[in-house]
Amino acid sequence: MCGIVGYTGNKYAVPIIIDGLKRLEYRGYDSAGVAVHERNAIKIVRAVGKLKNLIEKTNNLKASGTSGVGHTRWATHGKPSEVNAHPHKAGDIVLVHNGIIENYGELKASLIKKGVKFESETDTEVIAHLINYYFKNTNDLFSAILKAIKDLKGSFACAVLNLKEPDKIYLMKYESPLVLGIGEQENFFASDIPALLPYTNKIVYMKDGEIAVITDNSYKIYDFNGNEIKRKK
Ligand code: GLU
Predict the structure, then answer these.
(1) Residue 209: CB partners within 8 Å, gap ≥ 6?
(2) With a 6 A CB cut-off, is 100 part of the ligand 1 pocket?
(3) Residues 169, 181 contacting (CB under 8 angstroms)
(4) Are 178 and 120 in contact (CB under 8 A)?
(5) Which end of the chain is more exposed for a tag (fewer CB within 10 A), N or C?
(6) Helix axis angle, 104-113 to 124-138, nearest 10°
(7) Averaged in consecutive runs of 10 residues, what is the pLDDT profile of the chain (233 residues)?
(8) How far, in Å, are 4, 137, 203 from residue 56 at the CA level?
(9) Which residues pair with 159 in a beta bridge?
(10) Structure pTM?
């Protein structure tokens, strides 16, 4: 399973993400992690085991960032360990994932041939490097995500941060659950509604084959060809 959650708005992101992870912890106990934008950097903290281990590690994290993502893992590829814990980083891209990439072996082999270095044993790190590979060529994260999705076989609910776009979170969904939570000057996402209910009851269900781009004051949904989808509010 796995749970993902994230926030972009005008409040400190880490406590909101940790709170969301507490409500999602039933989805995975192997490790947990957060990533938050922090003055021209993305800080990542990960810990093996239950969420309380991550909470202990983040207690000393003086993170004033207002945009970030979190993950609680149920390992499918790669043992439970810190290096296999999400978020995964590739260049300026940071990513969390719920799902399974079935063709990760062949994608990984072809990226390695192109000189990409992997740290973990996960299928997830392949998504991060694949997006980064296309992103480096185009410098356009949205089109890099569209390209990467076409190569992926399997299930994914992913959230992607870009160092250069601190107020934006890119989301993509195929056969793993993902909902958006719409607030005032703040927006959220999560694998499951209970993670968001303390913050908003305005929920938008993402459907398979959709990408969303959220900022503090907007959310836009697209299909996997990049065409915007208008939803009834
Ligand atoms: N396949 C990913 C991993 O093992 C995500 C796991 C999941 O969604 O349960 O890290």
Answers:
(1) 173, 174, 223, 224
(2) yes
(3) no
(4) no
(5) C
(6) 40
(7) 93 96 86 95 96 91 90 95 97 98 98 97 98 94 98 98 96 98 98 96 97 98 97 68
(8) 19, 39, 31
(9) 96, 171
(10) 0.97
